[in-house]
Amino acid sequence: MTAGSPADTSDPSLRFLTDRVEAVRDSLPRTLELALDLGAAVPLPGSGRTAVTWQLLTTLAAADLTVARVVEPHLDALAILDQAGLPDAAAPGGHGTWGVFAAEQPGLALTATSGTCDAWTLTGTKPWCSLAGHLDRAVVTAHLDDGGRRAFAVDLRSAGVTAEPAGTWISRGLPTVTSAPVRFDGVTATPIGGTDWYLTRDGFAWGGIGVAACWYGGALGIARTLLDAARRRTPDQIALMHLGRVDAALHETRTLLTRAADEVDAGRATGQDGALLAARVRATAFRCAELVLDAAAHGLGPAPLAFDDRHAGRVADLHLYLRQHHAERDDAALGRRVLERAAAGGPAW
Predict the structure, then answer these.
(1) Could you tell me which residues are beta bridge partners of residue 267?
(2) pLDDT tens digits, the chain, 349 residues: what are they?
(3) What are the φ and ψ backbone dihedral angles of 280, each rounded to 5 degrees?
C-alpha cells in the first residue's frame, strides 16, 4: 500500500482524524463542526491530491460510518460549487454546512422558475433530503419547464423551506442521518451551472467514487472486527477462508481507488471515460462491502450483533448506505457502457 493510498492509517494525521471521530461520534452538532473543519482543509477532487480526499473519507468511514455519511455530502457540495466556478460561494465555512439533494421519487417533483433579472424560485417537494433540518445550505436539483434539470444553491433557513418531521425516519442504520422530504414554496435559489450540467459534469463521476470510498471504509471497519476475532483464538480453516476472501476483496478495492485517484488527477477521468471508471469503482466497492458483510455474518455468528453495539451499528449502517447502489440495475448500466464503448471502436478491456 502506497503512502497516498486510501486507508493508509500509518499517516499520523489520519490517526489524529480517527481520534477526532471518537470525540464527535454520537453528537450530530460536533460532527457537523468536523465537516466544516474538513471542508476548509481537504483538497478538492481533480486538484492533484484526490487520493488524499478519498483516503480521508475511507478513514472516517472505517472509524464511524455515520460521521462519514455527514461529511461526504458537505465536501461534495463544496466541490460542485468550485466546479461551477463559484469560488465565493465555495469558500470553506463561508455559508456553513452543506448537503446535496438530487434524489427523485415518483409522485414528487421540485420545479424551478425563472423570473425577472434571472431570479429563480423553487416550488414543490424534494425527497430523500438528509439532515435538511440541521444543515445551513444545500445544492438541490430541480426540473425546468423545457424538461431539463438544473442545480441550485439554496439557503435552507429561508422562509418557504419546510423539512418534514424526522419522525418518519425509522431506520436502524444511520439512525441520526435522517432523510425526509423537504417542501419549497417559492424559495429563492441561485443557479449552479447550466441545464443538465449537474449530471454531465466530470465531477459527478468523481463524487460517486467518493461515496464508494465510504463504502470501502465501512467494510474495512467490519473486516477489522473479523480479524480481531481470529487473533483472539486459533482460527480453523473456515475462519482462514473468510479472512482470505476479505483480504483479496479489500486489496482489489483499495488498489482500484488508488488508480482511480491517479486517473482523475491526470485528466484521464473525464466524459464517458470518467463515467465508466466511476461505475467500475462503485461496482467493485459494493461487491467488496457485501462480501465483507457476508464473511462477518458467517465467521462471527450472532454474538457481536447481539452484544457488541459498535459492530452491530456498523453492520446496520453499511447495509443501508449500500442501498445507494442499485445492485443489478447498476451492473446492467455498467454493461451498457461497456457495450457502447466497444461499439464505438474503443477498448472494452
Answers:
(1) none
(2) 343 444 444 455 567 888 899 999 999 999 999 999 999 999 999 999 999 999 999 999 999 999 999 999 999 999 999 999 986 554 444 569 999 999 999 999 999 999 776 789 999 999 999 999 999 999 999 999 999 999 999 999 999 999 988 778 899 999 999 999 999 999 999 999 999 999 999 999 999 999 999 999 999 999 999 999 999 999 999 999 999 999 999 999 999 999 999 999 999 999 999 999 999 999 999 999 999 999 999 999 999 999 999 999 999 999 999 999 999 999 999 999 999 999 999 888 8
(3) -70, -45
Strand partners, 189: 120
Element housing 116 (H / E): none
- Grid coordinates representing 6 are 486510501
Assign residue 225 a region: left if phi > 0, alpha if psi is -120 to 50, beta otherwise? Answer: alpha
Cα–Cα dist 68/259, whole Å: 22
Distance CA 334, CA 152 (A): 29
Asked if residues 299 and 239 have their Cβ atoms less than 8 Å apart, the reply is yes
Q: Is 96 helix (H, G, I), strand (E, B) or coil?
A: coil
Asked whether the whole model's pTM tops 0.85, one would answer: yes
Half-sphere exposure of 65 (CA within 13 A, CB side): 29
β-strand partners of 108:
105
Radius of gyration of the chain (CA): 20
